[in-house]
Amino acid sequence: MDQNTKDQVVIFDTTLRDAEQTPGCSLTTREKLEIAHQLARLNVDVIEAGFPVSSNEDFEAVKRIANEVEGPRICGLARAVRLDIERAGEALAGAPKTRLHTFIGSSPQHRAMMRKSPEEVLKMAVDAVELARAQCENVEFSPMDAVRTEPDYLYEMVEATIATGATTINIPDTVGYAVPDQFGQLIADIISHVGNVDDAIISVHCHDDLGMAVSNSLTALKRGARQAECTINGLGERAGNASLEEIVMAVLTRGDYFGIACDVNPKEIINTSRLVSRLMNVSVPPNKAIVGANAFAHSSGIHQDGVLKSRDNFEIMAPQDVGLEQTQIVLTARSGRHALRHRLEELGYELSPEDIEKAYERFIVVADKKKEVFDEDLIAIVSDELTDIPEKYHLEYMHTVSGTGMVPSATIRLTIDGNSEVQESAWGDGPVDAAYKAVKTAAGTEARVEQYAIQAITSGAEALGEVTVRLSEGGRAATGRAVSTDVIEASVKAYIDGLNRLEIQAGIQRQRAEAV
Ligand code: KIV
Ligand code: ZN
Q1: Distance separating alpha carbons of residues 451 and 442, to the nearest angstrom
Q2: Which of 46, 159, 317, 436 has its CA 20 to 30 A from that of 105?
Q3: Candidates 3.40.50.1100, 3.40.50.970, 3.30.565.10, 3.30.160.270; correct CATH number of 393-515?
Q4: 144 lines ligand 1 (CB under 6 A)
């Protein structure tokens, strides 16, 4: 949509122009095309594809995007000088849906920088729009640094450029100086002071130097602006531009307040954000509204319980609305049983209340040691904790000592057959060897370790370690397995698990012998 109707806002994306000017964010023509096609899927109304006079690559990119990308209107930027305007006109020539955007600094600061009087700048603006109209039917004019421009002079410039044929007048807060009330008032004042304002769409273009770009843009829309210029992930010069995803989701989520609509397909927001982040090489902060990794993640027990009972308890938008699969429940030490059961069910584990209780106890132990408990941790916990092996030997207590220049030793206490407790100490070649000797003596077994393997099964320094031990005794063999964030504990538990499995085999052999 490109017409000024009461309830529609034109979404003008300038990721490929304003954001691409950011050092380190430059894109190849192929990458620009890829983003432009994605912006078309996102269904933005206008794509500002580049600044054709700035380089041959930019010229080529604007030309190709204007000819190859279907849907949005494609815009090229030009300073208010003949060379720029003609080059932009050339890049856009022959393409089906184009816009030429020309600008000049209107504030006292910018006029002084150009050493031009107000009258000279006004004339340059009008001449630029006239020339642009000769190249393209759809012309946008920006009085750059409008926010710091004298209001009466600004009204005069807006009126004159509309009279010359500008179809959109963009009011930039080039240096991010505006505050919402003041900026909203400026837009309202332009609308009430400029006689021919209905002949153009009033647009806003806010930078985020004081962190108010989105608030300023939204306030302007509330006060009558009908185009918002913005970028994906809020990228752009210095602190960036107003973020497209935040403006769009505010307009869509708070339609009750803003009373306006836009045609953007929000389900493409995440895809677009990820593509831009990858190609421009700027990662999205986890707490960034709408597209940050934590934007739909709940980690406190109360929030998790609430959101699982009913999403709108703690979410004003559904993650699916912006193209995410689902709400993320981050399992941490603050999570409750409800969240654990929910995630286990998603992983395919339907556990009895007793088993959930057992898994939860184990989960809390792991969660206390790790910042976040991942799916692979849960699978390890469930298979470790809930595989029912009758326990002849149960580890009650263990203490190991090791270090450089000392003899490693271990003290182990086992419960045997659920009643008697046996405690033993031993020394060895390392803490695991010492612990194994102590277990052997306490259990009164001759089981030999045939194989020992340890592997990290989750990532990070506090990862869960899985130990498997192959034991043999009296012609029988069994493999014990255990998981813990403490690899010595995992080693001892794996050994004891192996002993319990050997004991099961011994029991089966005894039953067979008695049956014969
Ligand atoms: O910030 C600005 O003023 C601009 C103009 C070119 C619109 O980017
Ligand atoms: Zn800008």
Answers
A1: 21
A2: 46
A3: 3.30.160.270
A4: yes
What is the rounded distance in angstroms from the CA atom of residue 329 to the CA atom of residue 335? 9
**CA separation (Å) from 270 to 108, 241, 255?**
41, 18, 21
Q: Nearest CA to 209 among 185, 245, 170, 241? A: 241
The terminus-to-terminus CA distance of the chain in angstroms comes to 88
Report the nearest atom of ligand 1 relative to the CA of 103. Answer: 6
Residue 287 has pLDDT above 80, yes or no: yes
Q: Which atom of ligand 1 lies closest to the CA of 172?
A: 3
Work out the average pLDDT over 317-323. Answer: 93
pLDDT band at 512 (very low <50, low <70, confident <90, very high): low
Tokens 């609305």 correspond to: 321
The residue whose CA has the least distance to atom 8 of ligand 1 is 18
* pLDDT (tens digit per residue) in 209-234: 999 999 999 999 999 999 999 999 99
Three-state secondary-structure class, residue 95: coil
Q: What is the pLDDT of residue 237?
A: 87
Q: Is the Cβ–Cβ distance between 389 and 406 less than 8 Å?
A: no
pLDDT over 50 (residue 2)? no
Lowest mean pLDDT among 11-20, 146-155, 453-462, 503-512: 503-512
Mutate to test the pocket of ligand 1, among 46, 102, 142, 204 (most ligand atoms within 8 A of CB): 142
Torsion of CA 360, 361, 367, 372, to 10 degrees: -10
Residues around ion ligand 2, judged by CB within 5 A, are 18
Q: How many angstroms separate the CA atoms of 148 and 171, rounded? A: 11
Atom of ligand 1 nearest to the CA of 146: 3
Cα–Cα distance measured from residue 20 to residue 61, given in angstroms and rounded to the nearest whole number: 12
Helix, strand, or coil here: 166? coil
State which ligand 1 atom lies nearest to the alpha carbon of 17: 8
Cα–ligand 2 centroid distance for 289 (angstroms): 21
User: Closest ligand 1 atom to the C-alpha of 144?
Assistant: 3
> In sequence order, what are the residues at sequence separation of 6 or more whose Cβ sits closer than 8 angstroms to the Cβ of residue 181?
219
Spacing, Cα 506 to ligand 2 middle (Å): 78
DSSP state of 412: E
Q: pLDDT tens across 426-444, in order?
A: 999 999 999 999 999 999 9
Which ligand has the minimum distance to the alpha carbon of residue 101? 1
Average pLDDT over residues 362-383: 82
Q: What is the pLDDT of residues 141-184, one digit of tens each?
A: 999 999 999 999 999 999 999 999 999 999 999 999 999 999 99
The domain locations on the chain are 7-280, 297-385, 393-515
**7-280: CATH topology:** TIM Barrel (3.20.20)
> CB of 169 closer than 6 A to ligand 1?
no
Please answer whether residues 471 and 502 qualify as being in contact, where contact means their C-beta atoms are separated by less than 8 angstroms.
yes
pLDDT tens figures, 376-416: 678 777 766 665 566 899 999 999 999 988 999 999 999 99
